[in-house]
Amino acid sequence: MKFSENWLRELVEIKADRAALAHALTMAGLEVEELTVLGEQLSGVVVGEIVAAEKHPEADRLQVCKVDAGQGELLQIVCGAPNARVGIKVPLATVGANLPGGIAIKAAKLRGVESFGMLCSAKELGIDADASGLLELPLDAPVGKPLADYLGLPDAAFELKLTPNRPDCLGLVGLAHDVAALFGSAVKVPEQKTAPVTGTVTRGIRLEAGADAPRYLGRVIEGIDMAARSPLWLVERLRRSGLRSISPVVDITNYVMLELGQPLHAFDNDKLDGDIVVRHARAGEIVKLLDGSEAKVDPSFVLIADEKKALAVAGVMGGYDSRVTDDTRSIFFEAAHFAPAAIMGRARKLGMHTDASHRFERGVDPELPRRALERATELLLAIAGGKAGPVSVAENLADLPKPATVALRRARLRRVLGVEVADAEVLRIFTALGMRIEPAGEGWQVTAPSSRFDIEREEDLIEEVARIFGYDNIPTHTPAGALTLAIDPEARIGELALREQLAARGYFEAVTLAFVGADLLGRWGFDKNLVPLANPLSADLAVMRPSLLPALIEALSHNRARQQDRVRLFELGRTFAAGDPPLETPSLAMVACGSARAEQWGEPARVLDFYDLKGELDAIVAWGGEPQRWSVHADGLPGWLHPGRAARVSFDGTTVGYLGAVHPQLAKALDLAPDVHVLELALEPLLTRRLPAATPVPRFPSVRRDIAVDLPEEVSWAQVEHAVRTSLGERLKSLTLFDRYSGKGVEAGRKSLAMGLILQDASRTLTDIDADQCVGDAVSALEKACKAKLRG
User: Fold this and answer.
1) Does residue 488 register a pLDDT over 90?
2) Which domains, and CATH codes, for the chain?
3) Over the range 316-332, which residues count as b (16 or more CB within 10 Å of their CB) and which as e?
């Protein structure tokens, strides 16, 4: 919200200077994000008129101008502005003037021609950023008048960073009530008069959008003069609020929006057919908007239409075919109230953001449309003439929001604020804010005005008292109380410790947004059980992430595009799946690419492969002390993994994640190199740790037996290990795979695995017979479970 300080001071008495005003607004929750001083140090700058202009004899881009400064004698000034021409009135900085930025005006020679002053652009005067040419003033500007007096300078442009719960301050009149409460003054806004009705043309209105659009007003104004120009005061107020003057009709709608906070729109009445219909869009309907773009809308949008066509997207932007042009002579002014939920997110869905949608999606006072329509009519009749017809009104009173009445307890107010606020001060604050307050029991009953959508409960009223009473006036007390420190269970690894372990292994932690785009998820094949957002920040952030990998891979690509060939990233975060409520799963994701080891001299460079990432998994799993509960399998892989270089990870037989190389097709779609490998796991099993327990040193020696078995290629080591451990039980202390062979002597489609069995009994020394029995049991189990054969 950007506005002129002088404009605000016309609406409310402010007993403070600019700095105090800015501080008071910020401390009241209306943060002043930027404050730009306009038009200071303009003494010596007057209104001048160019009465003659000739080409400079020594420079093609310069002109020698004769300028009337109201001093009797014409001044000769050399000017290089492209719009300098005879007949225009412009700011003239006379000799001796000092402009903002430390520019001192002196008599000078430019390419041999004397110049006595400078003709100025808006940027040189410090009132705007436009430096494209001279600031052209209205033709009726009085020559010789000090420019500061003529433009109402100096001034300041305040820009507020308003929170979404304060839409009432998106209009200067609403803001004026807060300022009046802060400074104990009164708002000086006169009551809006009803514009005289001299026309007879009307247009019917039908409401067919239910509670989404419960109130719509409009009136026809005939015979307007589109050649009229907006007066200087209006143009300047728009400029200082960040808006350009376009035409009287557009300027007036923008001005009323800034003044009252109610967006308006004007249609060319001659381009409308029949009644105005406020309805929901039809599936696949397309509306051509004012900016020339075509918006494809769905039934969640509310449209303004006539009997034959759609005219505008309600609360967002008007239509192209019904726009006001220089040929327009009759307009239909609209002012409406739309439910915030009906407008929320619609502009972002269309890839745009407008002043109207910014206000409507936060909530506009439902009582404003009539006042705004009368104000706009008053201004238009005064500037462009015309005859105003009767106001047409359509409304569903049952669907309009009702002002909330909330109880405020005196004791609760004192307890929350920690300070006694006098009853008279409480009464003053709520009255100044436009609320109705009545004593009730041990406190008050407060009824919020229709503009305050944020007043719903007692805490909201306490906040209002705190804001206006002043946070500086509330004492600061250190809280007292006994704190119980929770002790982390020993059987659980802390997330911080896991982060430190990953960082020690050379990985950098990344933090990505929990929102991703549906298009990106579609490339990964994540199209089921998604959690879409009702009000996304943008189309690229419309879905809660079902996996950490898409955003983490984008971070990897971002780093690779900046000459980082070897990238290692991890993230701990939550993933989301559809449910009631949505299911949240704490997860760990790791991505890596580039060389397997950092650049060094000790061994040849090698590109990262599947086994490197599998080694990272083994290291993390071993940290928990129970690696035997984990296993990897080559089946059941998702489509985004390379089928020959990936694995499914299980914990106690339940799938908890995946690791491997990104599928080549996905890598191509994401513009990734083929060396990118990923790992994603549910976090909870990783944080489980076996408590260390003391065991006696074995009294009896261990026995080793080596066996080699021939088995099908598709049988995994995890299956082999499970079969052997299950068959031998506690006697098997360790199982080591030390050789894998396929080729000559082994049938095609089969492989040979050689393993060492470390056998030990806690009660006696194992004999050769015992060891041979264990080997037999192991081989028998492998024959049954894995179709294995003992090799000689």
Assistant:
1) no
2) 2-39+156-183 (3.30.56.10), 45-153 (2.40.50.140), 205-399 (3.50.40.10), 405-473 (3.30.56.10), 495-686 (3.30.930.10), 703-790 (3.30.70.380)
3) bbbbbebbbeeebebbb
